[in-house]
Amino acid sequence: MHRESYNAVTEFKNIYIGKHETGYKILDVGGKETPSGTVPGIGGNYENIFPGCTFHVLDFKTEEEGSRDSVPDIIVNGYDWPIDDETYDVVLCGQVFEHDKFFWLTLNNIKRVLKKDGLACIVAPSTGGVHRHPIDCYRFFEDSMTAFAEYMNMELLDVKTYESYFNDVRGVFKKSKG
């Protein structure tokens, strides 16, 4: 994770959840990265942004398992997530979709595991050099977040681009529809 992504999720939390709110059940998709992907003093996921919340990390099985800075709570090999429907209040997904061959399947899972009125925050780069982990397939723009909302049949609450090397785009989604 890089600092802009961390800042995007911090801003999401402060605006849509509240600076001091606790008790949420949160899933961080792709949250445990290799040490080279962490922000000094922050680490490889967004957990410390959400004190007082139940925080689970899901990551995809890779060939680099031994290089993780810590072990995810849930490791999946593909797109069949062992999580019940409507389990989480919030799903975070930062710096994952560019590495996800079939990101639309991940979108399906995000919607499925969100509770009704749950929130999803997706952060993805729109620029930047190739950074394989283990692959690098895509870049996303603000219109991508509109397409994600339409595909998931969810409300797009906000979309914003953070100027940086990666020009991260953050989309905030609400599951108010079926």
β-sheet strand percentage: 25-35%
Major sheet attributes = 7 strands, mixed
Count the beta strands.
Answer: 7
What's the end-to-end separation, in Å?
A: 32 Å
Low-pLDDT segments? 34-38
The domain count comes to 1
The CATH architecture designation is 3-Layer(aba) Sandwich
Q: If you had to describe this structure to a student in words, what would you say it looks like?
A:
The chain is of the alpha/beta class and 178 residues long. The protein has one domain (3-130, 138-174): Vaccinia Virus protein VP39 (Rossmann fold). 21% of the residues lie in helices and 26% in strands. It is built from 3 helices and 7 strands. The chain has a 7-stranded mixed β-sheet, with helices on both faces. Strand 4 (88-94), helix 2 and strand 5 form a beta-alpha-beta unit. The longest helix is centred in the N-terminal third of the chain and has 15 residues, at 3-17. It starts with a helix and ends with a strand. Mean pLDDT is 88; it is low at 34-38.
Describe the structure concisely.
The protein is 21% helix and 26% strand. It is of the alpha/beta class and 178 residues long. It has one domain: Rossmann fold.
Give a topology summary.
Blueprint: H1 3-17, E1 25-29, E2 54-60, E3 74-76, E4 88-94, H2 103-113, E5 114-124, H3 142-152, E6 155-161, E7 169-174
Parallel strand pairs: 1-2, 1-4, 2-3, 4-5
Antiparallel strand pairs: 5-7, 6-7
